[in-house]
Amino acid sequence: MRLHRSVFYYQSRTKDDRALRLRLKELAYARPREEDLMVRTKRRKKRAAEWRVKPLPATRVGERWSIDFLSDQLADGRRFRVLTVVDHVSRECVGIEVEQSLPSQAVTEALDRAMRTHGKPEAITMDNGTEFRCNHFDRWAYQRGIQLDFITPGRPVENSLIESFNGKLRDECLNVHWFETLAEARNEIEAWRREYNEARPHSSLGNRAPAQYIAELLSVRVGT
To answer: Helix, strand, coil shares of the chain as percentages rounded to 5?
Structure first.
């Protein structure tokens, strides 16, 4: 057969390691993160609606706010963003922030300023934007005892209050004015906010402006 005699008579000296292999597999399944082992994960499409519980409607002024962003541009083409904050019960716009950039820290600073004037809400409703999903925003809310309610991804109707407000702001202010500077944009948007809060009647408030509605609530409380 033309085989060397040493090959013909060779006997393997390898130890039987079947028990060792079995034990290694058991350890790998039990502790997959150790020793940088490759981890096989299940790919499953997540649906936020499967576990999200719809919050109860707010019943008091200051109980719940909604926040969101709009974007626009100046006459020279530079983009800017607008953060809007609206109270669910009074419909009052408790804050508007206008900046070229509004990262998470700028958002929380704007909310802190609004809270110094209007008090702290119990909860805030928002979409799933990166500014709201980051660790900084989560830590800020936890430290202040504010509940964060995220709407279902792709369902802006779940935050219809702020969507309606933003639509009015765009139609009546952003689309009407041609801003030369960021300072001009801030002034015009703030003037619109004051008119919205102090003079615009809302059917949901019995055709009263938010400021009038709040004043009547306060007078009732004082009277009682």
So the answer is: 45, 15, 35
